[in-house]
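Continuing the batch. This is chain 6 of the set; chains 1 through 5 are on the previous pages. Same settings as before, nothing changed between runs. Recording input and output for traceability.
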Amino acid sequence: MAFVLPDAADADAPLKHDELQVLRAQYEKEGYYVGVQTKFNYAWGLIKSSSRNEQQEGVRLLSDIFRHSPERRRECLYYLALGNYKLGNYAEARRYNDLLLDHEPGNLQASSLRGLIDDKVAKEGLMGVAILSGVAIAAGVVGGMLFKGARRR
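Output for chain 6:
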């Protein structure tokens, strides 16, 4: 029987609106003196969101924790990788995920997320090649038509 990695479970499972509201209310209640754990919890909820703006805010909050709370960096790595993955920032996602895997090579969620990132990069790379090929063909056709038109004169 083959060994199967667990999914990067948080990739496509948003919180319910009410659950996110609880996290938001706590974050806003603490205001200027918001605790690191409250900020982390809210950022986690935002990253799980299906709203791009909320995901961006989640990444921003986690980046702030990552910069200002060195003792919490390892905890931020996976969710920074996941948030950047969901936003389509695959190079950043890979960078954070690789940092986590450097510290925890056996982290199954990070290994699963690496596979998701690699698949997206490969898929978008193929789409890019197809688009460039189409543009090159169109340019060749237009160039050929212009060349033929210039020769007729």
